[in-house]
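R.M. (postdoc): so does anyone remember the format we settled on? I'll just put the structure tokens first.
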């Protein structure tokens, strides 16, 4: 994007002055991170998954939680074994579903470098 080329030297020398633009650059380079949690938001298992997400700093993340197909991020991401289920996506690549906070934590830790493990 031209704006990044025009401001690259200034961002490098004064990053504190370009916080929001650097966040946009990171999203542009890494594709952002979308996390879909399919389950009843009031259920304890769903709450554990959401807490695991909130424990981490994930720049540019979008999180959707619910038991239906809206918002779009939840569409085609069913629960596994009737358990609250999480999917982590970057760009057009999504992880296999996970149903425990421990598995989600490992997945988010491995995805922090911009890579989503796929099976």
């Amino acid at each position: 994007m031209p704006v990044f080329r025009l401001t690259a030297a200034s961002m490098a020398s004064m990053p504190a002055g370009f916080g929001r633009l650097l966040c946009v650059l990171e999203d542009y380079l890494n594709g952002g991170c979308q996390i879909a949690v399919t389950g009843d938001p009031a259920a304890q298992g769903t709450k554990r998954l959401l807490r695991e997400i909130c424990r981490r700093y994930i720049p540019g993340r979008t999180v959707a939680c619910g038991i239906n197909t809206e918002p779009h991020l939840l569409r085609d991401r069913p629960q596994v074994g009737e358990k609250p289920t999480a999917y982590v996506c970057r760009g057009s690549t999504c992880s296999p579903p996970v149903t425990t906070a421990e598995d989600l934590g490992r997945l988010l830790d491995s995805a922090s470098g911009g890579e989503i493990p796929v099976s």
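R.M.: ...and that's the designed sequence above, right after the tokens. Also worth knowing: The chain is about 40% helix and 15% strand. The two ends are 32 Å apart (CA to CA).
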